[in-house]
Specification:
alpha/beta; two-stranded antiparallel ribbon; 14% strand; 5-stranded mixed sheet; 312 residues; 13 helices
């Protein structure tokens, strides 16, 4: 049996295979073109391969899976913890992966299906558009602030913005008008994405089920369904809460245990959307409002809303 380590990049894959005695039997670089990936699949047949998780790994992973090659994806942070090195090259990385695979020390990462990846791309596009719109709105408010012009809270209604623009100088007015035009374009794109998200969510059983929970809309439901990608892959509720970053970090030494803030090495999108939904759930659900009130009295509002998100 040969064990392969694959260090995937945008333009090429550095591959290394070792045998059962940990001796390198082949090292080669393959281009990430159709012919190059075909050659990689042929070279990998009969071996057990591992590829480090990255943006560039999915093309290679999909090609190997379609060719019926045994391949796993390694968790990048945990691989670094096992095999940190001061000298780092593509060849060294590929060999390290191959050696870890031979020793069965690969911390495996979950790889979502192509369909799930497409859903994640859809919801993340909506997140991207929302963040772009927020940046533009902050820039508009900054321009008014520098000009000493007071603005209403509902500045970004068409009428309020037009009234505020009339108070600006010609050059400043041009900048704000261009930013307002970009905002209108982003809002139109966001409406298109929202329609596509609702359509996709309505045909997704997990999203339909999540939508029944107070505070959860179609966008949140599809985001959670896509990010969780099958609740059965989690051993219990606590593991799912940890994946969402809604449990405190713990440091233990001997008989002493310290609980810290929530862990940041988690799914930040899940944590963000659950906290947003928790604020809505507190308003409309007696059950969640009771949790919020009980925890809030003892530990404050911030920890209370995290507790509600964790309960959700």
């Amino acid at each position: 049996m040969l064990y392969g380590g694959l260090d995937a990049h945008k333009d090429f894959v550095q591959a290394c295979w070792v045998n059962g005695k940990n001796k390198v039997v082949r090292e080669e670089r393959f281009e990430t073109t159709p012919s190059g990936l075909h050659d990689l699949c042929e070279a990998a047949r009969g071996s057990r391969c591992v590829i480090e998780s990255s943006t560039a790994c999915f093309q290679t992973y999909d090609a190997l899976r379609e060719a019926k090659v045994r391949v796993r994806v390694a968790h990048p942070l945990r691989v670094k913890a096992i095999a940190s090195a001061k000298i780092k090259t593509d060849k060294i990385d590929a060999r390290t992966l191959a050696e870890l695979e031979r020793a069965d020390l690969i911390p495996e990462a979950h790889v979502p299906s192509k369909e799930t990846r497409d859903l994640r791309l859809l919801v993340r596009q909506r997140v991207f558009l929302t963040r772009q719109a927020t940046r533009l709105k902050n820039r508009v408010r900054s321009i008014f602030l520098k000009q000493g012009t007071k603005t209403p809270r509902n500045l970004f209604t068409q009428r309020a913005l037009n009234d505020a623009i009339t108070q600006l100088s010609c050059s400043t007015k041009l900048a704000v008008e261009q930013l307002a035009s970009q905002l209108r374009f982003l809002e139109e794109q966001r409406r298109e994405v929202n329609a596509a998200i609702q359509l996709a969510a309505e045909s997704n059983p997990d999203a339909v089920l999540l939508k029944t929970m107070p505070g959860v809309g179609w966008f949140s439901a599809l985001l959670l369904a896509a990010e969780i990608d099958g609740v059965q892959r989690f051993a219990d509720a606590e593991h799912l809460q940890s994946y969402a970053g809604l449990v405190p970090s713990i440091r233990q030494s001997g008989s002493v245990t310290h609980s810290g803030p929530i862990s940041k090495q988690s799914n930040s999108l899940m944590r963000w959307v659950l906290v947003q939904d928790a604020w809505i759930a507190v308003r409309y659900s007696k059950k969640f409002r009771k949790t919020f009130t009980r925890v809030g009295r003892k530990r404050g509002v911030k920890k209370a809303i995290i507790a509600v998100a964790r309960k959700m």
